[in-house]
Amino acid sequence: MPKVYPKTVVIPALVSSDNKQRFLNESSTAGRNLNPEILTVWKKSLLFNCYGFTVFDTKGNLVFRVDNYAAGNKAEIVLMDASGRSLLTIRRKRLSLTESWLVYDGETTVNPRFSVTKNVNFLNTKSLAHVSTTGSPKNRNKKNVAYEIEGSYSQRSCVMYDDRRRRIAELKRKEAVRGVVFGGDVFRLVVQPEIDSTIPMALVVLLDQMFGGHSRKFTS
């Protein structure tokens, strides 16, 4: 049986001899990874009788975990790293006219890092949700759109854009391996260089809350 995580070899792009030295200088100076980060997302917790997500990198290493997802009557979702350290805490916003969530750093539930709102504009059917920064504690009502998500979560085909309409991450179906076709519970998250993959993964969790269909959702 094939493994859910990919076995991918990333081949660096070729450069001409004229640009070779400049390429090496820029790479050594900035220390940047020029290749996208490809993650395999498995919509399943590794813990028995628990719902969540398990995320691997291209080498099969565990990157993210969501183990308390919809377990019982939880009012929040915690995105963790491989060791179980809390990275982001997601809570549904109470008393809101729209489906909105607040995302906090670590295990804190004060001063949210950003908010995510499900799109309710039927004239813009491409948009799924938008992500806004929540401003400083003294100016909490001021919000700026940081990311926009478009596509179809049910088809596992989504694009995440920043405020300048640059693609920061994409959600794609996972290709068949040796003739075995993976279902919708296994898919790929491709994150562009210089983007912390923690945020796109948190947005995947929220897309599942908004458009996951029969998936078990938490209640506040």
Automatic annotation (TrEMBL):
SUPFAM superfamilies recorded: Tubby C-terminal domain-like
Recorded coiled-coil stretches: none
Organism superkingdom: Eukaryota
Family recorded in the similarity comment: Belongs to the LOR family.
Record-given protein name: Putative tubby C-terminal-like domain-containing protein
